[in-house]
Design a protein that fits this description.
Blueprint (H helix, E strand, L loop, with lengths): L2 H13 L3 H4 L1 H16 L6 E5 L15 E6 L2 H14 L4 E4 L12 E7 L8 H11 E12 L5 H18 L7 H6 L5 E4 L7 E7 L1
Parallel strand pairs: 1-2, 1-4, 2-3, 4-5
Antiparallel strand pairs: 5-7, 6-7
Helix pairs in contact: 1-6
Length: about 200
């Protein structure tokens, strides 16, 4: 694992015990609704969730699908494992970096991630990995924080970004739609209702 990935992982390991509490207000007001909308788009029988974190998406897992979920933070994954056991889920959890997935080409019907690529050191490399493991005709679904299209807000986000990376390991100035467009997907759809700084993206391989 590269040095920058190790540093981000250490930050998430440090935050893991308090992570759900830190995001509880935003989760209740905004994020949970969008997670539900994201998972409603899932298709197929074999699903990969990238960046499972503490397991916030567990309530939305399809009952009739095989779900594999990964995270690069051991401490976050430990919390997810405990939640999985309490909920009686059959999902397979694995410690893995999205920038180097240990899966064969073309093996998942849907690859899904929520609020993950703000913290991936090399996001285009990670997105190319998602493309690689997705089956032809399959889809990659993303719910992501992005840089505002408003110039003043974008300037403020760029100004604050070094602090948010240092404190939380998350970038608030990512241009994730452009990064997805750099991959050879056949079709990319951005939900127009998902707003200026949060985007729901569907990319078909």
């Amino acid at each position: 694992m590269a040095a920058d990935s190790r540093e981000i992982r250490r930050r998430y390991d440090r935050l893991a015990p308090w992570f759900d509490g830190l995001e509880s207000v935003l989760e209740g007001l905004f994020f949970r609704r969008w997670r539900k909308r994201l998972w409603a788009e899932v298709q197929g029988q074999h699903i990969l969730e990238v960046g499972v974190g503490t397991g916030k998406n567990f309530p939305f897992y399809p009952a009739d699908a095989r779900v594999t979920a990964i995270d690069f933070s051991p401490n976050m994954l430990t919390i997810a494992q405990r939640k999985r056991e309490r909920k009686g889920l059959s999902a397979e959890l694995a410690l893995m970096d999205v920038q180097a997935l240990d899966y064969a080409d073309n093996c998942f019907d849907t690859v899904i991630a929520s609020f993950v690529f703000c913290s991936v050191p090399r996001p285009r490399k990670g997105l190319k990995e998602l493309y690689r493991v997705c089956k032809p005709g399959g889809q990659v679904l993303l719910l992501e924080h992005v840089l505002s299209a408003n110039r003043i807000m974008a300037a403020l986000m760029r100004l604050c970004n070094p602090l948010t990376v240092r404190l939380f390991g998350a970038n608030i100035n990512r241009e994730t739609v452009k990064n997805v467009q750099s991959c050879p997907f056949r079709h990319i759809y951005v939900d127009p209702a998902s707003g200026d700084m949060i985007k729901l993206i569907r990319a078909v391989k």
